[in-house]
């Protein structure tokens, strides 16, 4: 089973323009993410896929591998699909470019799903994290997922699902946006039109479910730290500074 990691990377970002090229402990955010993914030793290849000459040159000049997008794309999944169309690969993992603390264990769990899927029932695998804080559960920025008895996703929503009508205790899981696809599923996804559910919730993962693609959810306790704001970058720099205290000179 040949697995590759793809890191879609746009230079522009509405909340924090140019964030992937911001300095994080002496290296850019995107280079930190690329190196963390490489260091997992889980993939046959790791690529950054970008429409930006600045990001492309950043990776190439640091002995990394990057692919320049030829077309404009609405989503990271579409960008990755263009990049892998002519590659010989079985499993494609979409790693977020703004998560420089990418960890090995969650990625390993995603790949294991496909190794165990002897009946070839899984099209997509993704991660979820159990939430207990009511404010977090009600926050529409946290996407929730409900699953069947075999941990296949039944629905994703920004609303707090399930709704505890009789005030009984319910379990809530936050969807973490790291995906692993079969190559066939990813290429199929990009040919499908946006459906009513996706348009309403602004969640592309609902396109999988509306078209019969099976999404296997994997629970993890490892939550990646994303960089969406200048404040997030400050926190990330503080974390690196703390980590380096324990390294030998």
Describe the structure.
- The protein is of the alpha/beta class and 249 residues long.
- It has two domains: 1-102, Alpha-Beta Complex (Spore Coat Polysaccharide Biosynthesis Protein SpsA, Chain A), CATH 3.90.550.10; 116-176 and 192-223, Alpha-Beta Complex (Spore Coat Polysaccharide Biosynthesis Protein SpsA, Chain A), CATH 3.90.550.
- It has nine helices and eleven strands.
- Strands 5-4-1-6-10-7-11 form a seven-stranded mixed β-sheet, sandwiched between helices.
- α3 (76-84) packs across α6 (183-189).
- The radius of gyration is 18 Å and the shape is globular.
- The chain starts with a strand and ends in a 5-residue tail after the last helix.
